[in-house]
Amino acid sequence: MEGTLLLPLYFMPLFSGLLSDAFGYRPLILSGIILLIVGIGAVQSLCEPSKGDIKCGPK
Fold first, then answer.
1. DSSP sequence for 1-59
2. Residue 2 has pLDDT above 80, yes or no
3. Is there a contact between 49 and 57 (Cβ–Cβ < 8 Å)?
4. How much is the CA Rg of the chain, to the nearest whole Å?
5. Helices 2-23 and 25-44 sit at what angle, rounded to 10 degrees?
6. Calpha distance 4→7 (Å, rounded)
7. Are 51 and 43 within 8 A, CB to CB?
8. Which of 2, 3, 32, 49 would staple 56 via disulfide (CB 3.0–4.6 Å)?
9. Are 16 and 28 in contact (CB under 8 A)?
10. pLDDT tens per residue across span 9-45
11. Cβ contacts of residue 20 below 8 Å, gap of 6+?
12. Integer Cα distance of 8 and 27 in angstroms
């Protein structure tokens, strides 16, 4: 199972090299920054029941 989940990571340098040759580095860096901001927003939207967050508890 672990090898299956890591398989895409083995090919990331190849894919990113092909994309950087086709489009340049700036679009790749900008897309990485956008994905980072979206990920931070997703993490911030999660609730933490151990901190006593009202919206996480039973209704």
1. -HHHHHHHHHHHHHHHHHHHHHH-HHHHHHHHHHHHHHHHHHHHTS--GGGT-GGGS--
2. no
3. yes
4. 18
5. 140
6. 5
7. no
8. 49
9. yes
10. 899 999 999 999 999 999 999 999 999 999 999 998 8
11. 28
12. 21
| CA 9 remoteness from chain centre | 13
d(CA 33, CA 22): 19
What residues contact 55, with CB distance under 8 A and at least 6 apart? 47
Going by C-alpha positions, the residue among 34, 59, 33, 55 that lies closest to residue 46 is 55
**Whose CA is closest to 28, among 38, 18, 39, 37?**
18
Q: The tokens of 59 are what?
A: 């209704």
For the chain, the first-to-last Cα distance in angstroms comes to 37
Does this model's pTM top 0.90? My answer is no
